[in-house]
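ugh ok fine here u go
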Amino acid sequence: MQNIILLRALNLTYAKESKKFMDRMLGREGGLLLKDVTFHLYKGEVLGIFSDYRTLNYLKEMVNGSLDPKKGRVKTDSSILSLDVLDHISHPHPLNIFVSEMLDEYMQADEAAEAAEQLWSHPLFRKYWNTPVKEMNRREIALVLLEMSNVSDAEIILYCNIYRHLGAQDAAVFKSTINGQEEKGRGVLLLESSMEPIESLANYFLWLSYGQVRYDGSVKQGIMEYNAHMKKKSQLKSVDEEAHFDIEWKRNLDASGKYAHGLKRLSRKQSGLIDTLNMRKIILSLILMFTMLMASIVIFMDISFTGSANTGQEQTVAAPEEEEDNRIAYALVTEENLEVNGESYPYMSLLQVSDRSGETYTILDDGTPVEMDGSSFIYFNPASLYPETTLEALLPYTDEVFENNYLYYSRVLNGGTERVTDEMNLSASSASHAELSGIPISYQFKDGLIFSMSFPARNMEGMYEAFGITTEDVIFRLPEGYMILDASNQTWLYIQR
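structure:
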């Protein structure tokens, strides 16, 4: 009898590694991210799994075998094609090599060559055939991955947050690709942080909330429960209500206690010193320390005997040519209200800058240049090189209200201002910003769109230490935007591209 179940994920549990060295040495976990997640994937099924991107990323890595769960296992005899745009944005090789590497993993040599030739006939592939993948934008990479999934013969196709990188004109392509996989009898795992593709394409639904299965069943009923949950959350009017909302569900994940040996709970009396030691890490650390010590001795000896040999050599380093930057730069207002030509701009407004000379900024106010003192601004140029990280990595340094509900509050960014003014409880609003009632989150408007949002920062010293930051005000480049810290006011500004 043919087995129609392509994949079984049983009680998948994952705890992140602690940032502290001693905790890692002693085998202590940094906190659970996934807890007892179980699901089955059938032939011809599109299983939609909804959660935040961080949770989906860890789940994806466990399903495709790149990451071992702390508890549970994935059982399958089928080949898995795992597709995520963010896995390939730094790929250094040209598109033709990228295609060959992907196809060779799933096909015989002759079949892979035939599939590559079929892909080359596609205009997008012809255009970028000899272009490094890292030079392509995220939408183009997403379309490339969709086309490659059409020619691959993998039995399980995993799409992780592909939809978020596609444009409105690509919805039909995405739908056609998913429907085509379903018709071929393949199993599709649709991992999305947006409900829209799951609602229209999935035929079974799994909702992960705080790393746990909150709903497992039909798509229609699951969407109704999710919408009811979000409607209830949108009616909260204070920080205290936000903190106590869903508290039992949050505690269920945090109640991991002290785990060892397959995440079984141990009491203090049951565990001794030897149980807390991670012997493998201790041995590797000793080997690493010995290697570093020997390397230091060799370097010291080299300096002692040959240190003056190269002092007479001269090296010429070519200074990089300065490139003219024509992109728009901004000045972030750090005062409560700033007047420019008689018009008042609220805190965290972004004004366009045409020139900057020392501490003097030339602000474009309705096209009219105005010179102003830069002490009231944070300079922000999207074309500059800023430290790169992810929003998920910065969440521990944001207000708990935003950290626990960032998917909900950031969903309106880049939409029309009415999504805030008509749908949320406000304490104040104007043509340029809106403040939520009882919740420390504000939105900034620009040209009729929700341009950015601001919220309090916390544990700033920990953030400076974790990222090696030496300046107080800091700007991070994210895969989907920017996070700007106004240190003096302990406030973040989040811009989502």
